[in-house]
């Protein structure tokens, strides 16, 4: 006489587990949390998209106003309409450069964004680009996006990373310990089945219901949240695969504990401890450790340095301007005019000097951020809960790397604008106003506001983003395999004698 | 080939001897009663035969299979009835039987399940009822059916009549006799001296892990058996 075939055991367990109200209750709660999470993030991103649209409209209105002013200021000076000041005059190239070049760099969300709210949702998705803002933009005072997450986040990734394991572990604990807690295990063990096949069949049956249900719930949640499933198919497929592998990882962890054949109380206690360690304890401890070993440079110190350097530059202003003008062969003959330049023209020389002096501090911030991101990448591999959150954010396009790309491109955009506008401003050093008395209201050394290029974020292709996630997916798969193997090896003997 | 053979089996827990130098052989169809007070080592002996405990010394063979080296293969040849049978409360008697038969590597149809339950003495109207409200006697009868379904050549009974009424205990005796007639060896650990006299061919008295007396059941009357039992325990 031989023991049961695994296939028969699995088929029996699959039917029995499928009849359990517990299974469907847990899956219903998990599905509801998925839908709620996806809808939350979709609402957050929709609000951000609306803010971007408003910014576009404000930009359009601003530039239309500048164009209208430029036309109006071609009019001759009259008693009711005198010459306008340069900071109000879009036909004065210097005034235009400082007061009318105001463009928005916008970071639109990807179609798959309801997958996860990420770190970048705390950073601005709209950057105002002006020519003379040091390093491209000022993001310090942006409050809109942080306010959107003021109550914390409950997104699909949170539901997958934190809630799904709770549901799964609850199912494992209550289903697999049922016989132990009802004093049936001896009778089960006395039959011709080993603990590995018996536990394995039940776990497999739970997974056989849970995995498809979870994937379907995920797709349904994203569909409800308005994600165009066809457009984002690649990212969503990888997110679903990550979720399945993550479930297998927790199954391995569960099997390792259940190999000892504990009662429900002991199993749930162990699961709770492991869950808390992986989702809360280790990330918190790691974060505290990194904070101690590699503290962030002082933001207050940076502001202080900005002020100090600003004061230095003001004190050395004439010297800096003379040097800058003298360095330029085309301007060198007009070096005597360096000290009488208007404010906007002065800035075109002083701001690059400010940036040069602040560069070491700025680099310290950048380097620290890069180190933190490197540590986060490694931590993602060491702590799977962190890794899968990061992977979801990458697929959603809410990861810090995309934000950094956006900010770098915004800075490049500013430099590009400077490259267009500053030469026109500085050319005026060689052509000072012939007479202080003007016949037109505007100065008209810039006949029309310039048609400046608009910012367009050059995103990584979806395939590249997916490719970035694959190493973690493979690693998580290996961890899952390892955990399941350890669990199976440990499930050798029945433990029915106290 | 003997249905069960124990050779000089010993086991200790934390240095305390639980079973010492126990040797026992059961021929096919033989019914052997292992008597002894609580803590004498009866259940420990059954646990070792079932492979739930490994003996420190000695060997155990079930139908020629080394139960220590191959516990799963040995268990496939053993039917076991615990002192208190617990069933899946959400399943009917027939579903419980089908489940445990499946675990034993057997697939039985509904008609066979009903026949086995009837053979075990469970009334017909209980076959399709959920086990949730079953009395101990009813659960025990389903347990007997589970043991019968396995068609094993060795039946282990652990205090099988404990808590049963006279009628249920008598039904169980019938089952044991019937099993013996079909050349199934039966080893039962029990306190029930009356039942021992009723069904056993041989009996052994375990005391502090040692087999201190072994007799043919036919050679001793009930009163003498009780006297012998008490004497041996007092020694």
From TrEMBL, chain A:
Which positions, given as ranges, span the membrane? 21-39, 156-178, 199-224, 236-259, 271-293, 469-489
Q: Which UniProt keywords apply?
A: Membrane, Transmembrane, Transmembrane helix
Highest taxon of the lineage: Bacteria
Spell out the protein name for this chain. ABC transporter permease
From which organism does this entry originate? Allosphingosinicella deserti
Species lineage, top-down?
Answer: Bacteria, Pseudomonadati, Pseudomonadota, Alphaproteobacteria, Sphingomonadales
TrEMBL record, chain B:
- The segment(s) forming the ABC transporter domain are 4-233
InterPro entries (UniProt xref): AAA+_ATPase, ABC_transporter-like_ATP-bd, ABC_transporter-like_CS, ABC_Transporter_VariousFunc, P-loop_NTPase
**Superkingdom of the source species:** Bacteria
Q: Which UniProt keywords apply?
A: ATP-binding, Nucleotide-binding, Transport
Q: Which Pfam families did the record assign? A: ABC_tran
Q: In the record, what terms sit under GO molecular function?
A: ATP binding; ATP hydrolysis activity
Record PANTHER family: ABC TRANSPORTER ATP-BINDING PROTEIN ALBC-RELATED
Question: Mind telling me what this protein is named?
Answer: ABC transporter ATP-binding protein
């Amino acid at each position: 006489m031989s023991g049961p075939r695994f296939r028969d055991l699995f088929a029996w367990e699959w039917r029995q587990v499928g009849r359990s109200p517990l299974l469907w209750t847990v899956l219903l709660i998990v599905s509801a949390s998925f839908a709620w999470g996806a809808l939350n993030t979709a609402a957050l991103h929709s609000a951000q998209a609306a803010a971007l649209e408003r910014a576009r409209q404000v930009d359009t209105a601003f530039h239309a106003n500048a164009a209208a002013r430029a036309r109006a200021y071609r009019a001759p000076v009259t008693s009711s309409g005198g010459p306008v000041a340069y900071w109000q005059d879009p036909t004065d190239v210097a005034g235009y450069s400082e007061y009318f070049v105001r463009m928005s760099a916008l970071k639109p969300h990807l179609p798959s964004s309801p997958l996860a709210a990420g770190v970048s949702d705390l950073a601005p998705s709209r950057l105002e680009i002006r020519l003379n803002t040091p390093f491209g933009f000022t993001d310090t005072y942006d409050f809109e996006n942080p306010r959107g997450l003021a109550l914390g986040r409950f997104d699909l990734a949170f539901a997958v990373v934190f809630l799904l394991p709770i549901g799964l572990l609850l199912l494992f604990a209550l289903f697999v310990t049922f016989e132990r807690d009802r004093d049936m295990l001896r009778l089960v063990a006395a039959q011709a089945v080993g603990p590995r096949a018996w536990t394995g069949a039940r776990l497999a049956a739970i997974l056989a219901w849970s995995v498809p249900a979870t994937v379907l719930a995920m797709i349904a949640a994203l569909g409800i949240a308005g994600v165009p499933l066809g457009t984002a198919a690649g990212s969503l497929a990888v997110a679903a695969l990550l979720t399945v592998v993550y479930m297998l990882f927790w199954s391995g962890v569960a099997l390792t504990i259940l190999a000892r054949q504990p009662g429900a109380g002991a199993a749930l206690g162990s699961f709770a401890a492991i869950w808390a360690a992986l989702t809360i304890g280790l990330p918190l401890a790691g974060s505290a450790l990194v904070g101690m070993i590699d503290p962030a440079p002082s933001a207050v110190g940076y502001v202080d340095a900005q002020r100090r350097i600003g004061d230095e530059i003001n004190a050395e202003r004439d010297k800096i301007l003379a040097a800058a003008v003298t360095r330029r062969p085309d301007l060198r003959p007009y070096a005597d005019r360096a000290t009488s330049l208007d404010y906007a023209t002065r800035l075109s020389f002083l701001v690059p000097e400010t940036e040069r002096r602040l560069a070491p501090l700025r680099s310290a911030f950048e380097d620290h951020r890069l180190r933190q991101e490197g540590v986060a990448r490694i931590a993602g591999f060491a702590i799977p809960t962190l890794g899968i959150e990061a992977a979801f954010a990458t697929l959603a396009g809410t990861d810090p790397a995309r934000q950094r790309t956006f900010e770098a491109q915004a800075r490049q955009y500013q430099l590009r604008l400077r490259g267009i506008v500053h030469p026109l401003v500085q050319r005026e050093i060689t052509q000072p106003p012939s007479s202080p008395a003007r016949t037109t209201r505007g100065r008209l050394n810039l006949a029309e506001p310039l048609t400046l290029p608009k910012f367009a974020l050059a995103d990584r292709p979806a395939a590249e983003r997916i490719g970035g996630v694959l190493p973690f997916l493979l690693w998580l798969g290996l961890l899952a395999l390892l955990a399941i193997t350890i669990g199976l090896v440990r499930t050798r003997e029945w433990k029915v004698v106290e | 080939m003997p249905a069960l053979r124990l050779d000089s089996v010993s086991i200790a827990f934390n240095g305390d001897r639980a079973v010492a130098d126990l040797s026992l052989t059961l021929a096919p169809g033989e019914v052997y009663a292992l008597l002894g007070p609580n803590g004498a080592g009866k259940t420990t002996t059954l646990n070792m035969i079932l492979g739930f405990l490994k003996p420190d010394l000695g060997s155990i063979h079930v139908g020629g299979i080394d139960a220590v080296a191959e516990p799963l293969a040995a268990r496939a040849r053993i039917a076991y009835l615990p002192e208190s049978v617990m069933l899946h409360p959400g399943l009917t008697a027939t579903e419980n039987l089908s489940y445990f038969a499946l675990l034993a590597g057997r697939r039985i149809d509904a008609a066979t399940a009903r026949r086995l339950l009837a053979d075990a003495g469970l009334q017909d109207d209980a076959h399709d009822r959920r086990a949730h409200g079953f009395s101990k006697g009813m659960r025990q009868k389903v347990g007997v059916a589970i043991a019968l379904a396995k068609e094993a050549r060795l039946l282990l009974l652990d205090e099988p009549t404990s808590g049963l009424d006279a009628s249920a205990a008598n039904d169980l005796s019938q089952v044991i006799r019937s099993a013996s007639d079909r050349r199934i060896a039966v080893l039962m650990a029990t306190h029930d001296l009356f039942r021992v006299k009723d069904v056993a061919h041989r009996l052994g008295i375990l005391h502090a892990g040692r087999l201190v007396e072994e007799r043919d059941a036919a050679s001793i009357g009930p009163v003498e058996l009780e006297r012998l039992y008490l004497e041996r325990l007092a020694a």
